[in-house]
Specification:
The chain has 5 helices and 10 strands. By secondary structure, it is α+β, with helices and mostly antiparallel strands. The strands form 2 sheets. Strands 1, 2, 3, 4, 5, 7 and 8 form a 7-stranded mixed sheet that branches. The protein has a 3-stranded antiparallel sheet with strand order 6-10-9. Strand 3 (113-120) and strand 4 form a beta hairpin.
């Protein structure tokens, strides 16, 4: 391959990256606003939900119709002999589901290694991030979002979590998890974590208004933690 061909391939690759990111951003704009919600507009807390987009409200309702499928998926994960335990944290997100899978380490049974698996009804996406309580190899820890309403605990890092696999067990079980999700939710696609830490600025989510937050956390929630 000569220099010209290499340059062409590189340009095509960069164009695809830009296109893929733009697709995610279009989905975000469909569900969320960059204008902060004025809570004084509602007298009854039950009406607060109506300040959000209809598209976002619809995902909250759709979640209720997907609980049976989610329970089937949770049961499948519980049958894996390599999983030390599974924890259903679907309460953690209004527009999706969340599952914590802890692995058995062949030599260190007390070591907390796992993958946190999310399903987002915004875009029908599968999101994964990775945790290892004893790692010394995590060079890209996940950062917490910056809330415009807070001045404390903004932007800190979770040192034992990452958007990228950082041990052999993460690599080994990632594809197993994706294939298992597709058995129950075949219409869902894996979120590309190369865009996970792309910063979204000035966005109103259903829990708060954020000055800056990772794209991953817009889709899958910002309760980032290790294996619990």
């Amino acid at each position: 391959m000569d220099t010209f061909q290499l340059a062409q391939h590189l340009m095509q690759y960069m164009d695809k990256i830009a296109s893929d990111l733009n697709d995610y951003l279009l989905v975000v704009n469909k569900y969320f606003s960059n204008e902060k919600i004025d809570e004084s507009k509602v007298n009854d807390p039950r009406d607060f939900r109506y300040l959000f987009s209809t598209n976002l409200q619809n995902t909250w309702e759709k979640k209720m119709t997907e609980i049976e499928r989610w329970n089937s998926l949770f049961q499948l994960f519980g049958e894996f002999d390599w999983a030390l335990h599974t924890r259903d944290m679907s309460f953690d997100l209004n527009h999706g589901f969340k599952l914590v899978l802890t692995f058995k380490h062949p030599e260190l049974p007390m070591r907390n290694i796992g993958i946190i698996c999310h399903l987002s009804l915004i875009g029908n996406l599968i999101g994964l991030y990775y945790a290892d309580s004893k790692t010394t190899k995590n060079n890209q820890p996940i950062g917490n979002p910056h809330k415009s309403s807070l001045t404390i605990n903004n932007g800190q890092y979770e040192p034992y979590t990452s958007y990228s696999p950082f041990n052999d067990l993460h690599i080994k079980y990632k594809e197993v998890i994706i294939k298992t999700v597709h058995q129950i939710f075949p219409e869902f696609t894996e979120f590309d974590n190369c865009f996970a830490d792309h910063k979204i600025t000035s966005i109103q989510l259903d829990d708060d208004y954020y000055a800056s937050i990772d794209l991953f956390q817009v889709f899958f929630g910002n309760n980032i933690h290790g294996v619990i």
